[in-house]
Amino acid sequence: MGKQKGVKDMNTPELQRLKMEWLAARESGDAEAQRKLLLDHPGEQAALVDFMAGYYATETVALEENATLLPLTQRATQKALERVFVAPAVAANLAELRRNRHLSKVDVAKGLRLSVDVWNKFESGAIELVSLSTRQLDRLAAYFQVSIEQFSTLLNSSQPAVSFNRRQTREAARNEQQSLQKQSFTDAIARSTMSQEDQQFWLDA
């Protein structure tokens, strides 16, 4: 029971927000912002350290190279790496990956600064993998602490749930089929309910 509660607590909206702030600071090369994020949030520091260590592990970057940048990660590096490599999350698709992380669709959407409708398209496999930039894939994969290759495979494995009804008209069937067609990430963002700020956050990546 205690373990399940701990896992759930680690996925609070506030922690997910801090993870995305750290990723943005890392992408911009702002070492001071990364350091300040850890120091200003002592309550989430341990979880953030684990997230950072897992991120570097999946990215196959030597943590020693970042020792001066993130000295606080040294204390938890070994423990976090053991969790990453010894007990990897097994998932068949993105929906299963999300559930394995004990996250709701709303949690993921908020944590990634996406709208729920866009995340639904990811889970249904409607987003074209080739439309995602390396930085966008890196951001998505890092959120779930998996590699870019793993996230890409899970996206390709995600399939829409198509329902068949003998009484369904041809027009309704055609409309349903069109709604399940692949589309680019940029197009999905443009058609979404996301704020202009969040849209720009992803379009600039």
From TrEMBL:
SMART domains: HTH_XRE (SM00530)
GO molecular function: DNA binding
Domain HTH cro/C1-type: 94-151
Pfam family, one: HTH_31
Superkingdom of origin organism: Bacteria
InterPro entries reported in the protein's UniProt record: Cro/C1-type_HTH, Lambda_DNA-bd_dom_sf
Entries under SUPFAM superfamilies matching the protein: lambda repressor-like DNA-binding domains
Descriptive protein name: HTH cro/C1-type domain-containing protein
Organism lineage: Bacteria, Bacillati, Chloroflexota, Ktedonobacteria, Ktedonobacterales
